[in-house]
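Worked example 2:
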Amino acid sequence: MNNEIEHLLATAADDADRPLGTDVDDLLVRARRSVRRTRIATASTAVLTTAAIIGGVAAWSAARPESQGPAGRPDGQTITIDVKTGRVVDNETGKTVVPAPPLSPLSDAEVLSRCSRYDLAYARLAHSEHKTSDKAGPLNAQWKVVVKSGDQSVLNALLQSPDKSVVTTCTMSGPTKPDSISRTSTANVAARSQYRNPLTIQDGFRVPVPGVTRVLVDLAGESSPREALVGTDGFVTLGHPAKDSKLISLNRIRGYDSSGKKVYDQTPKPFTAPARTVDPSVTVKTATPVTPVVVLTKDPATGKPLAPPPPVSPLTDEQITTRCRGVDAIYFKDLSQGGVNSDDGVIKAAGPVTKAWQVALKTGTGDKLTALLVSPDKRVYAWCHMLTSTAKGPYDYTRGAVQADGKFAHSFDFGMVPDGVAQIVLDLPKGPTRALISNGYFIWGLTGGNSGIKNVRVHGYDAQGQQIYNQQMEVDADFD
């Protein structure tokens, strides 16, 4: 699923450095790029001054021009507030709304102070000179707290960068106990209200109309609407997930202004990934293996010692296909549930991974594994990266299809060996490194998550150690 639209809409896509804590069987579209995931307001219970008291219940005032009508038209529906309890009733269904999470009593300065201590993913990447996914800089006192929920200890907050390009979600179960911290483009946050894509409870979103003071959301699988906590500029949150760490989907979002008028009513659209197809007439063509006669130990260009290639995984091919099937199964579970992969020809074409798939490349030690699997018909690959023995732990996964030229599309995760090349050296941030070559493919380390994407030069040498290939290539230069 390497496409820009999905990268924008799938909220895991540009999150930072922390494995997911949710059950991976529920991840669905979050399978891609999950390894590196890390994980002010108006009072929601206040009785609005424009409300009229009728039989002990506060109803939104209809004291507005006749042409405008009461909030909720054209259906003539309203929401009401019980003045004794502050509970909101959804008059469209008659159901009591689940209350909004509490407004945090912490000052903005304290929120920023707590969260900035744990903005480690950005700091680590910046220090290592890796390309980061945004240019907003580290979290500091210049960022704006747009919504904050919790108490003196528990915290869920959305923080916007000074240039308004990035929103950080900071979730903590205690003053020194971060649960997750992620950096997401503001455009991505806005898209959450437009597209029905799985989110975590702590993921906030934005209602794109001015003047919204109350927001009701209908969640898939829940019988009653929830009220979200509204912050500045339309940013909202459902609060700290506590034990409720499952993924959610927004079925409907309604926003009301301070007079009770419904100013926003959105049914997020299902997101369908752009169609990908597999040409049945083309099979992948790999370079003929070349055995080096002169084995390079130093970089011919600089004389620096070459770092050794990553090790071949000690796991058997059957062990690898067994492990990777656990991740692969998530995609096929998604197919039956109408997820974003339902119309993806590359997912469907070769079917689920089986023992018949070729393990073309494998690297890793212990439970750590990165493998490239090729379908029996040689038209589809599955790239599988796992840090534990099962899909219950951190992993990364993708599929790709053969192109018209008989090659697999460019990947950040591995490469195809050019014709005539016996050895490959990459100018990685840690220094010149020999790549591991196997069955016509090469890899430079146990990579995952795209957090270290870097443009590096790839040098290919023939059997005698003479350079015959020299190209730039974007690679995931981070290592687990």
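The longest strand covers residues 467-476. Residues 1-77, 127-132 have pLDDT under 50 and may be disordered.
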